Amino acid sequence: MGRVEGKVAVISGAARGQGRSHARLLAAEGADIIAIDLCQDIATNDYPLARPEDLDETARLIEKEGRKAYTVIADVRDRVALSAAVDAGVAEFGRLDIVLANAGIAPLTKGGPQQAFVDAVDVDLVGVLNLVHSSLKHLKAGASIIATGSLAASLSSGNTSGMDAGPGGAGYGFAKQVVSHYVNNLALQLAPEFIRVNAVHPTNVNTDMLHSTPMYRAFRPDLENPTREDAELTFPLMNAMPVPYVEPEDVSEAVLYLASDAARYVTGQQLRIDAGGALKAIPWSG
């Protein structure tokens, strides 16, 4: 029997990257998946976002694991549309046990428009609130809410990863910091109902968000047109372990634990999958 056998999970940002990885592993461990994604670009975000065919591929991978997929194209910034998507998925499967607020963007363009700050906050923070709050009415004792944070939650909100990443980078860092506080406070509110709330905080993850021109430029501002190879020379500087990034599957394993009954008394936690990055950002003073 799988570790989340018979459960139903809703995942935002499910079309690719971490969201797809989470969907695939949870399905392999017995869960049906409500997979939600915007599947179109956001103007201030200077790398392509997922497309409908990416969401279709996530559904195919879920079904390959022998579980059911219910896909919805919806914007996490739109509470009404998102709530309708969650309600439709619950109507399809009859229950909801796991909420994975994962959708995110990183509009890291130095000197970019101030709207990039707004968009980063609206997706990376408001989108988390919208999915969780749209899901609460469906949750019962034993449910698990998991938010995707970031190593950036341990850094200055105005300086993501120690580099100047423009208004969008500041918005990204701010959003992840507030998500961390939100998880702590919501966990206290839901603990009497035995509903758990936790966050995972990865360092760089090997996804399309990381492997993008804006990210390369943020990590290598000394170069006019940095390549992946150029950026990967500096990626490891974030971490205590000498690795440039972790894989989406590394984060998914942490998500699976928090979603499972093995973590039935784990709530309000900030679980870092960051290769020791936070240890460098916030040295222990003893």
Automatic annotation (TrEMBL):
Name of the protein in question: Mycofactocin-coupled SDR family oxidoreductase
Pfam families registered for this protein in UniProt: adh_short_C2 (PF13561)
What PANTHER family is this protein classified in?
BENZIL REDUCTASE, CHAIN DEHYDROGENASE, PUTATIVE (AFU_ORTHOLOGUE AFUA_4G08710)-RELATED
Q: Which family does it belong to?
A: Belongs to the short-chain dehydrogenases/reductases (SDR) family.
Instruction: Alphabetically list the UniProt keywords.
Output: NAD, Oxidoreductase
Xref: InterPro entries: NAD(P)-bd_dom_sf, SDR_fam, SDR_subfam_1
This entry's Gene Ontology molecular function terms read: oxidoreductase activity, acting on NAD(P)H, oxygen as acceptor
* Cited Gene3D superfamilies: NAD(P)-binding Rossmann-like Domain (3.40.50.720)
